[in-house]
Amino acid sequence: MCGIVGYVGHRQAYPIIIKGLHRLEYRGYDSAGVALIGKDGQIGLYKCKGKVDDLERFMAGKDAESTIGIGHTRWATHGAPNDANAHPHFSQSGRLALIHNGIIENFRVLKDALISHGYTFRSSTDSEVLVNLIEYVQDTNECTLEEAVRIALRQVVGAYAIAVIKRGDPDRIIAARQSSPMAIGIGEGEYFISSDAASIIDYTQKFVYLKDGEVTTIEKGKPLQIKNLYGEPSKVDIQKLEMSISQLEKGGFPHFMLKEIHEQPDTLMDCIRGRVNPDTREIVLSGVLDNKEHFLQAGRIIFVACGTSWHASLIGEHLIENLCRIPVEVEYASEFRYRNPIIRKDDVVIAVSQSGETADTLAAIDIAKRAGAFVYGICNVVGSSIARATDSGTYIHVGPEIGVASTKAFTGQVTVMTMLALLIGKLRGTVDSAFYHEVAGALLDLPEAIRKVLKKAPEVEKLSRIFTYAHNFIYLGRGYNYPTALEGALKLKEISYIHAEGLPAAEMKHGPIALIDAEMPTVVIATLDHTYEKTVSNIEEIKARGGKIIAVISEGDTQLRHRADYTIEVPGTVECLMPIISIIPLQLMAYYIAVSKGRNVDQPRNLAKSVTVE
Ligand code: G6P
Q1: Which of 33, 352, 519, 609 could form a disulfide with 305 if both were Cys (CB 3.0 to 4.6 A apart)?
Q2: Nearest residue CA, atom 1 of ligand 1?
Q3: 388 close to 353: Cβ distance less than 8 angstroms
């Protein structure tokens, strides 16, 4: 979390940095700041609690003229979100200014050592310790700033993407990375840095993604050179990022989340295009076909993921077990990494992540690779750390997701998992050819079905207004739609701050049913599938106890239309694809309830989109 951005070149740095910070706000938004080197060589450092808009107001009337600068938007880890803890941080002498994304785990030891050398601290952050450590190293070693950064970072345990500038040096930024993302954008005699290449796509499409343990001095007008922490040169691998700026704007919608919900017919088409042949309904995923033997010989598949990606993985489990007959486990990456898991050489580990930067998922990949497993990635962000750390993979290609609550990434992930399961099933001979073609055809029809559901947005909006009073919600689903219930509940929690619990419908009677009363609405996904009748019985059990039911039902289901208190009808498809359809009304409902409650939908409190710390 935290977004960092920087510029050195011939243009004015401040507008570039502010625009970049706005685009990076999904990474954290509790305080923001910039450091600029003025004509006199002095560093002007401006920062405040709040969002980037607050920083802009704070900057009004201040001298921001400079062709070099660094900026930061924060998601607090060490120290409360206040002015003092906001980045950038000055070193003790004021000679250096630093921005940092990550966590310095051994900061206490380093801080104590610096205090014993006479250093005092203005903030409670680990980042201020780092800038002072760099200054101390430079003073004691009488070396260049880059050398000081390298020496200092060799003493650091933890995660970081940092950028440092020095008073009197308006041509250079030192940048380094370990476990937190850092892209360097290359212009004509100018450089940009950012936690996310998309934030600076207006200026360049040429990027170098720093790797772990790499440091660089980016210098106006000079070629890029990258070194490791010991000063040995690394390869400079320039990559092109294709993205249109309109993908980063709200496009007439009041929030990114609503735009992203409505984009889903198109994003799913982008995800499927070139992978499902519309004429033959054959599936091509080069990441699988090029590594066939791993999937053919797989003794087990283990999904590792967090949050929404973990929910999508639960659907992946059903798909793969059903279609490929390979045993599947779904693990929270954060648990997997710390529990000495049993990983065999014939295991295939599938890491699922929208951002491709989630620290726990990256750590899980590392463990799996060290144990000799083949690691496959399902990511959205092209060139992200997870995409690069995995042996192979498939991008979901749903375009930048900016709303903090994930929507189109979830449907994209389930779509990729369906294609993956079909293809592996076909390779292993475990899926019936007629069924394979039926599901592949159904994938192609999904965008149209989603369009139909989206037309119900006004209906869902009206319904949502009724439920803004509720303090608790239960979401129920079975089979493929149990993860949909979990995901629906997560959406509501994340953006409306209403407590919501997702459960397998039949588990209700083992405890949670005690919670049911007229004040506790239950959302049930009760579309026509092989557990439909059982779910209807669960609905009756809730109604018998005075509970209110909002049911997502299949078009034309008159039985539930009369039994549930409120219904949202959705078109049908093959059972395994139903989550992609039934999640849409739940996304809309969470959105409209949050809006009715006046919440900040795109930037809910305490959350960040890209969780690059443990
Ligand atoms: C954060 C986000 C969630 C996301 C999770 C996993 O908690 O707020 O929306 O599902 O991280 O992120 P990833 O990028 O790995 O899918």
Answers
A1: 352
A2: 609
A3: no
Strands (E), 436-565: 472-477, 499-504, 521-526, 548-554
CA 503 to chain centre: 24
Q: What is the pLDDT confidence band of residue 513, given thresholds at 50, 70 and 90?
A: confident
Identify the H or E element spanning 5.
Answer: strand 3-8
* Measured CA angle at 45 (ends 142, 56), to 5 deg: 155
Spatial CB neighbours of 246, under 8 Å, sequence gap ≥ 6: none
Would you say how long the chain is, in residues? 614
- Taking the domains of the chain in order of start, what are their residue ranges? 3-246, 250-455, 456-600
Q: DSSP assignment, residue 276? A: B
Q: What is the mean pLDDT of residues 507-519?
A: 87
DSSP symbol at 105: T
The CATH class for the domain spanning 250-455 reads alpha beta
**Which residue has the least CA distance to atom 13 on ligand 1?**
353
Q: Which of 133, 149, 21, 150 is nearest to 74 (CA)?
A: 21
What pTM did the predictor assign? 0.84
Residue 610 has pLDDT above 80, yes or no: no
Assess whether pLDDT exceeds 90 at residue 236.
Answer: yes
pLDDT in tens, 469-500: 899 999 999 999 999 999 999 999 999 999 99
- The 10s digit of each residue's pLDDT in 417-435 is 999 999 999 999 999 999 9
Q: Write out the catalytic residue numbers.
A: 2, 609
Do 521 and 548 meet the contact criterion of CB atoms below 8 Å apart?
A: yes
**Residue ranges lining ligand 1, Cβ < 6 Å:** 306-309, 353-355, 358, 361, 404, 406, 607, 609, 611
- pLDDT confidence of residue 98: 98
CA of 226 from ligand 1 middle (Å) equals: 30
Fold held by 3-246? Glutamine Phosphoribosylpyrophosphate, subunit 1, domain 1 (3.60.20)
